[in-house]
Amino acid sequence: MTIAITGATGQLGRFVIDKLRTRTSSADIVALARNPAKAADLGVNVREADYARPGTLERALEGMETLLLISSSEVGQRGSQHHNVIEAARKAGVRRIVYTSLLHADTSPLDLAEEHRQTEAELRASGIPSTILRNGWYTENYTASVAGALAGGAFIGSAGDGQISSAARADYAEAAVAVLASEGHDGKTYELAGDDAYTLADLAAEISHQSGKAIPYKNLPEGDYAAALAGFGLPEPMAKAFARYDVDASKGALFDDGRQLSKLIDRPTTPLSSVVTAALS
After folding, report:
1. Side-chain half-sphere of 188: how many Cα atoms within 13 Å?
2. What are φ and ψ of residue 216, in 5° steps?
3. What does the alpha-carbon distance between residue 99 and residue 34 come to, in Å, rounded to a whole number?
4. Burial category of 54 from C-beta neighbours within 10 Å (exposed 0-12, middle 13-18, buried 19 and up)
């Protein structure tokens, strides 16, 4: 079975390929990358594939049986880019598509969800058997701020007491591999999230415990948090988006207690403490 992975040089894509190589022959894995040179170290076949250039996608998917469509990182352009991939897959005769969507994409208040809803609908209309992996938040989305919290003496955000069911990026990669390397997943949608939810105050307490420094959680109004992120160097649109996501998290947008992720990977999801340890190291 030949398996193609889009976005292969991204963080999730690299994890997927590394884990997939333990389940199937490297000769049957094809990394699809906008810049093939960046994929030279993956240990699998590489083909040029640009979400925005349909011609490259059609050539890249020739002879592929299964496709993992890792959602594009270009918010606002995902709808058209995913359309290009799905159309190329249809023309190339791809037999199965696995897609990384967003947790509760059908009902999520996150503005990120709309393009995922569009893609899910297009997959259903394509006639190609597909599996939807609705990935929750990556724990690393928050632990990326550990260094800043230590430097500033507090962990800031706008998520209030919202429960966050995130999981490590490697957990989601393992779930993708579990689906890619086995049968019986066609037509299914998986809501994937961490086993144990936490608040940002819990995260701050864990950082404090492991670092030996008192790092409280400071909850800010949305505008103040966006301004702080912009002050740290984030482009203003991105700063406003991250602040908005936190507010949505305060209302439960990142919570799920179905434990479908741990069932799919047949082990507990990576605990928050382990991801904090990695961030501190």
Report:
1. 13
2. -75, 165
3. 18
4. middle
Q: Rounded to whole angstroms, how far apart are CA atoms 261 and 135?
A: 9
Q: Quick check: 146 and 279 in contact, CB under 8 A?
A: yes
Taking the C-alpha atoms of residue 261 and residue 203, their distance in angstroms, rounded to an integer, is 21
Predicted confidence pLDDT, tens digits, the chain (281 residues) = 899 999 999 999 999 999 999 999 999 999 999 999 999 999 999 999 999 999 999 999 999 999 999 999 888 889 999 999 999 999 999 999 999 999 999 999 999 999 999 999 999 999 999 999 999 999 999 999 999 999 999 999 999 999 999 999 999 999 999 999 999 999 999 999 999 999 999 999 999 999 999 999 999 999 999 999 999 898 999 999 999 999 999 999 999 999 999 999 999 999 999 999 999 99
CA angle 24, 29, 34 (to 5 degrees): 155
Residue among 105, 137, 109, 103 at smallest CA distance from 121 = 105
Token pair 């990384």 is found at 100
Residue 157, helix vs strand vs coil: strand
Helices (H), the chain: 11-20, 54-60, 78-92, 113-126, 140-143, 146-152, 169-180, 200-211, 222-231, 236-250, 260-265, 272-280
Which of 197, 206, 186 shows the shortest CA–CA distance to 259?
A: 197
Q: Which domains does the chain have, with CATH numbers?
A: 3-135 (3.40.50.720), 142-148+153-163+195-256+270-280 (3.90.25.10)
